[in-house]
Amino acid sequence: MSKCKTFRGGYKFAEFQGQPDDTLEEPFIPSQVNIPLLQGFGKEGDCLVKVGDKVSAGQIISRNDQNVSSPVHATIGGIVSEIKKTNYFGKNCLVVSIKGDGSSEYQKIPHASSNWSQLSKESIEEILYVSGVTALGYEGIPSQFNSSIIQPDDVENVIIYIVGSEPYTISPRALFHKKTTQNLFDGMEILHKIMPKAQIHLAINKNKNILQGFDEQITRYNWLKIQYLKSKYPQNHEAMLVKTVLGKQFPYGYSSANIGVIVLDLQSVLHVYEAVVEGKPLIERTIALCGTALKKPLHVKARIGTALDDVIGSRIKQ
User: Fold this and answer.
1) pLDDT exceeding 90 applies to what percent of the chain?
2) Domains assigned to the chain
3) pTM (2 decimals)?
4) Counting runs of H as helices and runs of E as strands, what totals does the chain give?
């Protein structure tokens, strides 16, 4: 265990009206999704479908193992209705539109197993890559594939943060819906298995210790350090985490991966667990719906590519 760390300056936000509670609403299946093939960290992959194709949720619709990228999946089952170039956050990329069939089923990732500790390092890397989870984080999760600019054996430190320094942020309790703290530990251990030379740092808001009662378990992991941080903006930023947790100066114009550091949030680690243990591809994300314009601020799981109006349209006060 370590003492509480912080940095000079910063800003501590007070409570805001419209803060979401810990409720997590189970996902609905949208009638249509529009999925940019430029997802997460990396470049756009090759489109593997055409208009009129029938697809299943969890089916890979974009992949290019030569580029720094990760596969992208259909997030609902249905028919590919359109493929077109669209401006996506200032970059032109293909967007695949799928009209859904209403099914909630999805294809599972091959070879995922609850007995994951018996899997080889290479098998775990492949599961994470095929699931699309390697796209998460500031610079992706390294693997034997081109999922990051750094190789797994070159990673010296992994920072996993649960700090919540911004005014509207996702509640860890909502993320743990139907999950346990043990799932977090399993996710971290999976990451340690594919990056065995790395020290893993779990950076936690000192006022919201989600690991109470797990002190004895933590001591079993010599590769894991717990760092308590003050919840002060912009502590969640990659550069501030590297400086506060590791005491390293972040090099201007570079990323954390350039100095051997991978930075991930809690949700990303739980996605690692879901992919390797449950065989779940990256087809949905938990988001916080916040603000006074909402009837009830809460958390929802949304399939990637769901239109914003489908998520919040009926939740806005009239």
Assistant:
1) 62
2) 1-28+105-318 (no CATH), 30-103 (2.40.50)
3) 0.93
4) 7, 14
